[in-house]
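seq/struct pair 1
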Amino acid sequence: MSSGGVAQHVRPHQESRPPRSRESSSPESKRLRLDDGCNVNETSQSNSKWPYSGDASLIESEILDDMGVGMLKSGAISCEGTKRLEDEPEVFGYQQEIYLNSTLEVTNTNRIPQGSYDMDDLAVHAENESGYSSRMEADYFGELKENFTKEKPNASIEKKEQTCSDQFCLFRRKRKPSVEGEDKFNVLSDEIILMILKWLPKKCLVRSMLVCKRWCQIARDEALWTRLDLGSKVLGEGTLGYILPRGVQILRLAQAEIADSVFCEGSEVLMESYISKLQYLDLSMAVMSPVGLAMLLSKCKYLKKLSLEKCVVNRDCCKAISQNKELEVLNLTMCENIDMECIMDLIKLKCLTALNMAWCSLDNDCMTVFCKMLPKSITRLNIAGCRKTLTDENVKDLSKRCPDIIELDLSDCAMLTMNTVHNLLNFSKLEHLSLSRCYSIPQSAYIRLAHMPCLLYLDVFGLMSDSVLKLLQATCYREPEINKYLYSSVARPTVGIRRTSIWGLRVRD
């Protein structure tokens, strides 16, 4: 066998094929016939050419390209163009090998019984000169075709997925406007809308925050929350933590019920650096624990007027009150648990001008320290209800400590005597004096008090009959007026039936 020969495994049919003619081929040139199953489908899909050795002068190169046949380099020998016969016998007992040399001579090999060797082993060992078996090649190309047909759809799907992922983008559907027609408010500026929202009550103002983000931002403006009235309301846990950060300056919580805890965890108010903007706070007769009250007052440093009437306080509350250096008015009427430590904290308020500590059940020691160390800035004072603790000496100390008092209420102080009348004459600027139910002072002493130069009002309820009152009024001519005010108004936020203002400031819009 020559070195340029090509080996093929041929499985003949039961009927032998006629021998090929030699006249159509020469040693210098030859043509290989390839069936459609080996050349057309597989090579067109894999874009690979079937090479062969020989002279291609008789065939044009374009025809070879269309057929999928390529030229081999000189000296290279390949059997990749071999084929398998289409028709195979169902049963055969031997395998015939046909060797094609350069002269296309056919040589038959000996018949090999099937039982002596396995067909697969025979195909492996029967190799041609190029080192490949024609059967192995046919099996290889058959598997390659099956794999290619399976991989091609997968490859196309992956390519489409890659293209889709490259072109993927988020699309936000345009919202359909809830209101048809022109929105007039979009034309208006924030300042104009703010002026409009000022006319709304607080309940409607809260609802307007749900309209849109712009309205929510405008409705939270501090100008709309300067004053707030929550009197007689029931406030849940942490409600004040949402109210104070809005910049409330005037807050009425009279007779309100405030649950503990006052501030929820995570609230802005609980930050150490937070300071409330409250200046006027009314907690008269509010139901609130001392701990919650102390926590609320600890966040207030700019209070000017404060009312805690009938509240239960402790040392922390009084300590928090003393931190308000600009506090001017303080109402502690009927407050409980005020002791010596609380008094020492309260006397630190140097700007205090009006103080009401009526019916606070102060003991003798507290009353003595209070009258001796009271801030000199006090001009209006109410210490009524000290039935057994306020004495003539205390009034004397008070006249020396605060000689500029304008209004003084000493009602229901049963220990006061005629000596107190002499001490009261030292208040040269006193305009309103109340000595109701001070039974130890004789009635004749009131005629002397009525002639004080600056006195305008004298209240002596429960001491004189109507005839005596008329005689006293006749001796005083027009001034002072007798028994004009039944209740004291010292440091109290509201007087009479007015409930829409505290200390003369509106709490409702």
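seq/struct pair 2
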Amino acid sequence: MQVLDTVGDKGLEAVGSNCPSLEELCVFPADPFDDDTIQGVTEAGFVAVSFGCPRLHHVLYFCQQMPNVDVSTIVQNCPDFTHLLSTLHKGTNSPFLYKLQTTNKGIGS
């Protein structure tokens, strides 16, 4: 499933409640170059999806953060989880628009 981040956490909660067979989820930024817009999806939305979608194994997420504790929760809720592509969006004022950072503790789950 592919959605824009404007779906918000409530939209991801609805996905978690209504799509138990979901295996892949991609959340794209509606406007990655707009620094003034607060992102509508947080890690809480992904945790909600993981509670309702145990078959989830692949997530692509353009985000501002993804704490290790939330990665661990997602992995524990989705035993077949194999891919988390979490691209941290820092806005256009930073030297790099997209930056990948490791989440060693979360990935170790």
